[in-house]
Amino acid sequence: MVIVLEKGIAEENLQNVIDHLEKFGFAVHKSVGAEHTVLGAIGVKPGFDIRQLKILKGVREVYRITEPFKLASRTFKSQNTEIKINDIVIGGTEVVVMAGPCSVESEDQVFRIAKTVSESGARILRGGAFKPRTSPYAFQGLGEKGLEILRKAGDKFNLLVITEVMETSQIQMVAEYADILQVGARNMQNYYLLKELGKIDKPVMIKRGMAASIEEWLMSAEYILSGGKSNVMLCERGIRTFETYTRNTFDLSAIPVVHQISHLPVIADPSHATGLRDKVIPMARAAVAAGADGLMIEVHDDPDNALSDGPQALLPDQFNDLMNQIKNIAQVIGRKI
Amino acid sequence: MVIVLEKGIAEENLQNVIDHLEKFGFAVHKSVGAEHTVLGAIGVKPGFDIRQLKILKGVREVYRITEPFKLASRTFKSQNTEIKINDIVIGGTEVVVMAGPCSVESEDQVFRIAKTVSESGARILRGGAFKPRTSPYAFQGLGEKGLEILRKAGDKFNLLVITEVMETSQIQMVAEYADILQVGARNMQNYYLLKELGKIDKPVMIKRGMAASIEEWLMSAEYILSGGKSNVMLCERGIRTFETYTRNTFDLSAIPVVHQISHLPVIADPSHATGLRDKVIPMARAAVAAGADGLMIEVHDDPDNALSDGPQALLPDQFNDLMNQIKNIAQVIGRKI
Amino acid sequence: MVIVLEKGIAEENLQNVIDHLEKFGFAVHKSVGAEHTVLGAIGVKPGFDIRQLKILKGVREVYRITEPFKLASRTFKSQNTEIKINDIVIGGTEVVVMAGPCSVESEDQVFRIAKTVSESGARILRGGAFKPRTSPYAFQGLGEKGLEILRKAGDKFNLLVITEVMETSQIQMVAEYADILQVGARNMQNYYLLKELGKIDKPVMIKRGMAASIEEWLMSAEYILSGGKSNVMLCERGIRTFETYTRNTFDLSAIPVVHQISHLPVIADPSHATGLRDKVIPMARAAVAAGADGLMIEVHDDPDNALSDGPQALLPDQFNDLMNQIKNIAQVIGRKI
Amino acid sequence: MVIVLEKGIAEENLQNVIDHLEKFGFAVHKSVGAEHTVLGAIGVKPGFDIRQLKILKGVREVYRITEPFKLASRTFKSQNTEIKINDIVIGGTEVVVMAGPCSVESEDQVFRIAKTVSESGARILRGGAFKPRTSPYAFQGLGEKGLEILRKAGDKFNLLVITEVMETSQIQMVAEYADILQVGARNMQNYYLLKELGKIDKPVMIKRGMAASIEEWLMSAEYILSGGKSNVMLCERGIRTFETYTRNTFDLSAIPVVHQISHLPVIADPSHATGLRDKVIPMARAAVAAGADGLMIEVHDDPDNALSDGPQALLPDQFNDLMNQIKNIAQVIGRKI
Predict the structure, then answer these.
(1) D244 in contact with C at a CB cutoff of 8 Å?
(2) Which of A286, B3, C67, D65 could disulfide-link to C290, CB 3.0 to 4.6 Å?
(3) Beta-carbon pairs below 8 A across chains A and B
């Protein structure tokens, strides 16, 4: 941490800043420059609130040099994290495609869709059994019945299963059925949930909150990693901005940014990012071109009658065409699908 | 709901739209204009996703005329909701001030601060026993011990107690000690928590999420109200924008907007909105002038050593001066403190 | 336009709304539904402010059915606009690459860079002679001398020239040297400039303002088109959001959105969108995959000594590698570079 | 400026950073800490782009300690700037109210409104003769005829006149008629206009751009101040965020922030910030309570027929009531109206 002091700071104020730093447990190194005196403070704890120093008299600016996260950073671990589940590796050369309906509606529906996405090359089946809905009056999901259906469909069509967990009380149940547990955007800063997820073995995917900075997103990963777990992946699904034409603004630049500062895999979800079926296709291609380690895509064979998010679901044929396009794009950048 | 059809829509497409509407349970009314045919659909359910219609062939635009929330709307209940607890009324003529430390740190600390804010005219004691922290390494709160301290201090200094509940598993415990339960900004769309809170008697205050529109904020209130409960209040605490000088952007216009479209009381929290002690004072004054039904303010008598958010806490003397100013401002608009 | 009236609106208020509509020049069509009376108003002028109706007594909501722009809309012109300059077509099958330094610094510099980008396959030379700078103390550009250099370099290396015009007084001069005139993001709503640009023959490219909605961006195009000109193209260069890791947030979804609602070509500028050299490469690939009609990329052979924006300029070798990658990606979606 | 180097930076890279700094004209001071070597660089020019250093090998972070603006900063001038025009002082104890119609429509209209706002206590007449309109088809203002009307009305009712200038070519004309020249939000970064305004004697008010940070807003003031002029004031009018209920989000916290870091007066414009008549009143009160040095308010006696922005104009009676309220609020904080 670097603390820049005001020009001509009074000796007692300078001493007060140093005393505070030492009380907070820092080793302090003073450097007197021609214009400003600068203090270096070593040993900053990840949770330290730098405003504690900013309000001291005579302090001009405080800069945290190190990121607030540690285990999630590339400084801590320079090699990419590869998450292996059966024969699938997430974060390796393959761009892994997760596909399926928004909500699990019935066994029939899930089996039909699982079959088609599997034939098109998807490796993981997605589907919601517990649904976070803005409205209390909207369909809230089938619960455990939905989990059972997903598991059966996954087993039949050789697909892994990813699904959302919304509450600590659901973790055990969801972990029994799913291969990957998903934390939704609205729960990205539900710290109790994150901490409990740090205690289970199964991989976790954290969706980025609608107003979450990349740093905060990695801090949420840090919550899970600090429980001793390493198989965490992230998912960009759009952030909220002033532009309302699309449901959210798909922040694809976050993909190369996360790859630079963290070792964790990043998945992209163009379905939630755009909210509009015909925008999903170009943005899925763009995500692969930008370097995403995977895609999460909603597919439905009868979207007009879907119980949630039908308008953003691809039809099976569209999904199949998309798979062909992204296979070729992946190849251009030395990856495969 | 109004559905505007494309100019020259084919008869079969028009019929398809009507069929869908009827299947969704709407009564349909057709009006053929000179340029566009317009369908009126009556009986829209609050959770209906209008994109279900937008994707049908021949549909140009769909407008939901009614708000997506119902119980929270002024259309449903034209009188202001007044929440009475002991001799205090929230949502009436009085502007109710909630004050106290960010976190409960010790009995001594809470008693000292409770005494001073009570003497300055605060009616409700605030303080966190369970703390949502961005970093897993930061102080997470005293838990039930903290709740006990708050209750004792509230009783001694004749203050009501408000504190945050972070998980459904904590609701019973928090409700035993506190007079008002607070839902934090990060939990505004934690729907399980909201639903469970709809089942208890005690009043609930919902902080606005950092990226939540006013409509979504009211939808979260609707979750609680739909459980049969009526004593819900809202709290504006700043939204996330591109401006980073202040911690958040304090959206004071939300106060008159909520008062227009809803009957629920609105509290303002300038401490979290600005994050900077010397900005809290002018913004607290502004909130009262804008019509807030209450203020929530962090006060600490030793902020340099506070375990959280010290930099945004007012000193007791500053708080006392502020109370004098806002008493006069309240009077100007026909209210009192 | 559709005007939804309050339930049980008084007859005199209804009449007042109708009178207003007729005074504003609308033909009015009334439809009495079971719940709401709805008025259809035909002949809305593009500049009409619908709040004029919203404030009338008894009006619940007003919806503008038609877009506020006309000449820029696909409804008005269903075929893609193709801008032909010499042997180059912008908006056709080819993805056209514009490359060059941020600022024109010297003849030597521009010639060196023009040579290398031309050899790598760029078709248009970019470079700023007039520079909009946040700071009055920063390098402001070489002016006409810079234009001369660009023209000479373009002619020598068989490249078209695009450069920014900042003021109406510069239009004639810039039009003498350049093949395409660029309106910068900060000038997107400089309406005098737009109107004057509507009077010249040369094509114009409008960069999206940092806070401009897609609709406002198209309205700026409408300003130029309404002068009788048709050769206008747009350029997405990132919008301002809460995320500060990248300079701006590259809104790639805007590309398919504009292609749907407008017939104008869309270029993408990953250099300004990200502001960071190593993010330019993946985001340029993503833009092509998303369907951009062209790219604008900053290239510098000595970026450490560039007079502006060196940190976001690609090195010539990086640019050459990128060109090879995007040639292949273009092919995947049936285009070429 | 502080440059933090990577742990274990190679000697040649360190030397390269120092060489660059010296080439850029900095005096360099090296401090070797236990963890990081830190360079202090003295003599940073206001326009220096710190990314020039960030991209050098071995550099971890670069912090600009000084603000990028100088003449606008309180460090440069600690006393508040007071702008005296006739008997009015802007930036002193008085909260100065500017009121009038959005657009000048006719002599009659302006005289009627000028009379009423003057009687209610306004000191400055506002009104647009040149109007920046999103749509090319909307009313664009009366031009010089409008300026004449404003001057005559101002003289008759003892009001100063403020009006917008949109182009460098209009400056001389507008300066002949108006007492204060206004730069609109869309022109905040029209640097040619700002530079030319630095050359005239009359005071200038700069509206904050919709996506402008407080720092950029002050940089725009710096453009004018660097021309040798000192009578500049700022105007907060709302920023663009995801919340669309109000036209913009009124960032009232910007008022105390600007007062802390700059010596320039800050005016608040609740009419453009909210866009809705009944929200203007509470937000005008809030602005005074937050410490604004003045208000700019739209008033119209026949808003249904206003040629622009009628829906956000106060009626004369509403304005009069508001004046009474804010007189009392001003008193509470030791100011007067």
Answers:
(1) no
(2) A286
(3) 124
Asked whether the beta carbons of residue C38 and residue B60 sit closer than 8 angstroms, the reply is no
Closest residue to A47, CB basis, from B46, B56, B138:
B138
Q: What's the token pair of residue B69? A: 């929330």
| Cα–Cα distance for residue pair B205/B183, rounded to 1 Å | 6
Residue D77 domain-assigned (yes or no): no
Beta-carbon contacts of A277 under 8 Å, excluding residues fewer than 6 positions away, are A303, A311, A312, A313, A314, A315, A318, B55
- Final residue of a structural domain among B63, B97, B115: B63
Name which of D35, D67, D243 to mutate to probe chain A: the one with the most chain A Cβ atoms within 10 A of its Cβ: D35
pLDDT at D248: 94
Total number of domains in chain D = 2
Within this chain, do residues A110 and A244 fall inside the same structural domain, yes or no?
yes
Give the pTM.
Answer: 0.91
Residues of A within 8 A of D241 (CB-CB) are 242
The Cα of C192 is separated from the nearest Cα of chain D by a number of Å equal to 7
Does residue D65 register a pLDDT over 90? no
**pLDDT tens-digit series, residues A45-74:** 666 778 788 878 888 888 877 777 889 999
Q: What is the ipTM of this complex?
A: 0.91
Secondary structure (3-state) at C105: coil
Same domain, D38 and D181: no
Q: Look at D286 and B213 and tell me if their CB atoms are within 8 Å.
A: no
- Tell me the pLDDT band of C36, cut-offs 50, 70 and 90: confident
Distance from CA of C215 to the nearest CA of B (A): 16
D-contacting residues in C 73-132 (Cβ below 8 Å) = 132
Which of D40, D63, D244 is closest, CB to CB, to A33?
A: D40
Look up tokens 């609050």; give the residue.
Answer: B46
Annotate C143-163 with b (16+ C-beta within 10 A) or e (fewer).
eeebbbbbbbbbeebebbbbb
| Per-residue tokens: C157 | 């290396």
Residues of B with Cβ-Cβ distance to C61 under 8 angstroms: 63, 65
Residue D259 belongs to what domain range?
83-332
CATH code: domain of residue A40: 3.30.70.1140
Residue A309's pLDDT band (cuts 50, 70, 90)? confident
- Residue B36 has which token pair? 């566009």
pLDDT over threshold 80, residue A183: yes
Q: What is the mean predicted confidence (pLDDT) over B36-46? A: 76
Q: Which of A40, A60, A241 sits opposite D38 (nearest CB)?
A: A40
Contact A128, A139 (CB under 8 A): no
Search chain C and give the residue with CA nearest D189.
C186
Q: Are residues C30 and C175 in the same domain?
A: no
Are A55 and A170 contained in the same domain? no
Residues D170 and D278 in one domain: yes
Tokens 């659901």 belong to residue? A170
A224 and A322 belong to one structural domain? yes
- Which of D68, D137, D169 shows the shortest C-beta gap to C47? D137
| DSSP label at residue B55 | T
Whether C136 sits inside 8 A of D68 (CB atoms) is no
CA pair distance C155, C84, nearest whole angstrom: 17
Return the CATH number at C239: 3.20.20.70
Do residue C217 and residue C323 come from a single domain? yes
Partner B contacted by C8 (CB < 8 A):
no
Q: Give one word for D228, left, alpha or beta, with left for phi > 0 and alpha for psi -120 to 50.
A: left
Residues of A in contact with B186 (CB under 8 A): 189-191
A69 belongs to a structural domain: no
> What's the pLDDT tens digit per position in D102-116?
999 999 999 999 999
Residue A117 inside a domain? The answer is yes
Q: Do C17 and C131 have their domain in common?
A: no
Fill in the amino acid letter for C130: F
Q: Which residues in chain D have their CB less than 8 angstroms from residue A34's CB?
A: 27, 29, 40, 42
- C216 contact residues in D (CB cutoff 8 A): 134
Which residue has tokens 């007084």?
A: C169
**Within a domain: D72:** no
- From the list C304, C248, A261, C274, the residue with the least C-alpha distance to D53 is C304
